[in-house]
Amino acid sequence: MERVIWVPDEQAEAVEKNLGGWPEGLTVDVYKYGEVPSSDPEFIVAPYAGFFKGFAEHLGELHNLKHIQLLSAGFDHALPVLPKGVTLHNASGVHDTAVAEMAVALALASLREIDQFSRKMEAGQWKQHFTDNLADKSCLILGYGHIGRAIERRVAGFEVREIVRVASTARVEEADGTVVLPTQAHPGAPIPTGSPTQVTVHSFKALDSLLPRAEVVFVACPLSDSTLRMLDAKRLSLLPDKALIVNIARGGVIDTEALVQAATEGRVRAALDVTDPEPLPPNHPLWHTPGVLITPHEAGVARAFFPRIAKLLAWQIAHFAGGEELENRVA
Asked: Which of 13, 57, 92, 95 has the largest count of CB atoms under 10 Å?
């Protein structure tokens, strides 16, 4: 019996090439974004970004469905519509480079006021002034997974004063992510440091004690019940004056109303690739809030995505064809 899979046409050719041809026993329905094939698949490569919502409306009609593969690292948008008994797999690792690049680019653009200088180009204004910089800053990475580590590797080259790592669980791990010491017995317990190749990761529960020294906060954690509006008015007030928040995760991790208030008062600055709500309505006050730089969820929208996602999809489809367990399961 033929096993059916769905693959978007934007990825199909490269995936087939990486596989050396589609595996025997598979029927591949190649579809265009905005379309839904009429076959009943076991494995779906879901469409990217804004096309997922309309696509998701049909998931309940698929009686043989066993696996959904996303093209994004974030998966919060898929959890509410995931059919019972179907596994969900994200694109962890695919977007690390592009997203980490954007995180650093946003930090530099905001600190060095590149957006302000670019506006003066139209008027032909040549006016120098001292700007802030990334060097010598205390940086906190909120969400220390694949993307958080990729941000750290890039930020370290800018001679920052320190990098503080925060994740859902406290631990000591090797540079490759291997956990050396698991979660501490109680929140806030001291975490022993090991060799120079090991790093300390603090728990979310320690965040309030860490924010007062965080001059730049890189938000890289998934959106979940535990991270929804994690950076609320209280926590924004804990940051040092003029602290910069760089969000390349999900807009809902930050309380937007509280951020608008804190930035309007000049307390904090923000460089945002994601917002809440999203897309950000044209009349939303965040567009005109002083000290805020916004890009339209562009971090993962880079050409590096295409060869990397093709490799991951080929790997996953090969596993599926061979009856093996798929990688990157998140639900």
From this structure: 95
